[in-house]
Every structure is written in C-alpha cells, then in structure tokens.
Amino acid sequence: MANRSTRVEAIDMLKQDHDKVEKAFKAFAQLAREDAEACRDLIMSVCEDLKIHTTLEEEIFYPAVHDAIDDEEIMNEAAVEHETARMLIEQLENMQEDDPNYHATFKVLGEYVRHHVGEEENAMFPAARRAGLDLEALGARMRERRQELAAAAPARGEALNPRGQVAAKPRQTGAADRSSVRGR
To answer: How many structural domains are present in the chain?
Structure first.
C-alpha cells in the first residue's frame, strides 16, 4: 500500500500545480526585463508545467469529471481555455526574447490561466467532489502519467510539437558534411 505522502488526490494535485504557476507568474512580475535569460528560463519552465498540467487534465481528469457531472458548459469552456493557453504557449516557444510582444504574451497567458484556475477551483472541482469521483484513484493515474510526461519533456532549448512530443530539429550541416559536398 502506498504511503500517505504518495497518495495525493487529483484535485489537490491540480491545485498544487495552480499554486506553482501562480508563484511563477508573480515572480515574473518582479524580474528585471533586462535579464533575458532569467525571463526566458522562467517562461519556458511555466510553459512546460502548463503543458504537462493540461495533458493530465485532458487525458484523465476531464473525461472522469465529464462523465460524472452534467455541465457541458463548464467542460466546453475549459476546452476553449486550454486551446487558448496552448496557442499562447506555442507563440512564446517560437518568439525571441527581444520580440516586443514576448513579455506581453506571457502576461496574457497568466491572465488566461488565472481565469481558468478560478473556474476550475470554484465550479468544476466542487462539482467533481459532489459527484463522488474516486479522486485518490484519479490522482494515482495522474501521478503516473506526470512521470511519463516529465521523462519525455524536452531538454532546455527543445520544443514540443502540438501533440506533446519533442519537435524534430532541422538537420544542421557540419564541417564534415560541407567538405563531402565540396568533394563531389
């Protein structure tokens, strides 16, 4: 039997994620914009955390909640909010730090995430609790999937494609390749 520290129920796990990214959005507000590397590191860390979080929700938590509650509106809104966040994350991953919209895009992502968190914590999570879902079992499934996603997460500088896989990098021609081309 798992010990209590590893048996975090699904809603508590999601709330921990919410708290983590909220702290990061607040930390970003305090960062000097001139420190491009620190800004980029924080932004990419938040983007990776959000991609894992949304995958857990979409693959495990939302289907269980959808089946247990009768509220299409909240589920549809969550899907739209996730799609919007996904678009902003993709923009951030493809922007350079010196893009005039870089910081603004991250700020808007934070506003969307805060709105989404409010709806989940004030409406969806209470409905899931009332529905009697086995939140501990969902938490166990989510924890296992999180480990898989974290193991597959890109190294710093790599990006994920829309399916959550490490995007293929363009082949770079090295010196050996150039010399063999010249020798033809």
So the answer is: 1
